[in-house]
Amino acid sequence: MSIRLRLTLWYSGLLAVAIVVFGVLIYTVVYRTTMAEVQKQLQQISSSTEVYPTRFNLAIGKLSSSFDPNTIYIQLVSYTQNQNGQIRQMTQNMFRSDNREELTFPFPPYQNVQTRFVERKINGLSYLIYETPIVVKETGVLVGLLQVGAFTGREEALFQQLRTILWLAGLVSLSAAFALGMFLSRKALRPINKVMEAAEQIQSGSELGLRIPRDKPNDEIGRLTDTLNGMLSRIESAYKHLEETNAAQRRFVSDASHELRTPLTTIRGNIDLLQKMLAAGDEADPAGPSGLSEAARKQITQEAIADIADEARRMSSLVNNLLSLARADAGYQVEMEKLPLLQLVEEAARRASFLPRKAAWNVGPLDVLEGVWVCGNRDYLLQLLFILIENGFKYTPDGEVRLFAVRKGDRVGLVVADTGIGIDEQDLPHIFDRFYRADPSRGVTSGTGLGLSIAKWIAEMHRGTLEVQSRPGQGSAFALWLPVAA
Asked: For residues 44 and 65, is the Cβ–Cβ distance under 8 A?
């Protein structure tokens, strides 16, 4: 059963209950009001009718002035000779004009006489009768019963007509309300149908960029539409981010495999060479089947071992870098402490002077670092500075690399500038991507393309930023901006 039909049935059911209650209320009020008027009239006639009771005689004296022989009938019952009662006197209108058949009211026996209203069906006609006991005042003995009745056929016809009108009006109103409820519910639920259509289109594989049209005021359905559109926007954004993350992960795995394959190939090649040389060796013939002298074999062995050691160090560095990036992806948090920045920079400058390089190494000015403290991790900040300095040495075959410091307000900047080959403008947005290396540097300088990615992670971990400015052929400048600790 649809929501539209359920809403209409609930609405119609409540309306039906309201109509029944309203009809019963109207019928009850009309019935009681009408019958109360008849009862009041019967009581007035009964009280104003004169009856003369004696021990052996009972008769109606003067009738009430409000007695209407067309609608009111009076009957007097005597219990003087018989306790079962016998009719003593009746008004003339209780004789039928067509066949003179008497209209007789049923009456109770002596022991059941009381003041009351009773409804009787006599000859198929309805009557309301008011019974009043007649008692001798001197003795208090019950001697008779005065019955004043009224024909209520017209009232019953009125009540029947009223019931018919109420039933017909209720059915017509309920039918009209049901039809109107179906129309209004269809119109009210039309936006929900649009929501269902949009959801079905998305489920069937349509673009997540689909949005539900909103043509309603700021009501519940309008707010629901806004909420669903906002949810779809977030889902679309999360889905795109997930796709980008998966693509980056696949690219990361591919690049990592490529970077690891090269040193592994070198190591395996050198190991195969050493195994062949050992297998070809002959104690009786120092030159062996290979035709190499002992000195030549020793030199080749040393070169192979040196290559294996170099590639092992390269793999170790790559694995450490991958571990750092894995920590970054996992939201790894390091221990922070307040550090004197000048001492840290001076230590990094001193260690950098021992690195292999072709460019000149200049430090300063560092005056702005006097008394400056930062909140950070010593080892990671040194690693970040060494990444920038090593890159400067690596891509500056001739010229200089300089480390200096600047300050702007509550932030201090450590700048590593070089006069090297520089970076093309189209490569600048990607230099912090993992395994990304500008085309001119590929195959010319060694590296994995992970250093700047790690440097950016360390900077963000210290609530800092890493900026770069570069011009091809003129050099590059990397600036690490850190917040000064209070």
From this structure: no
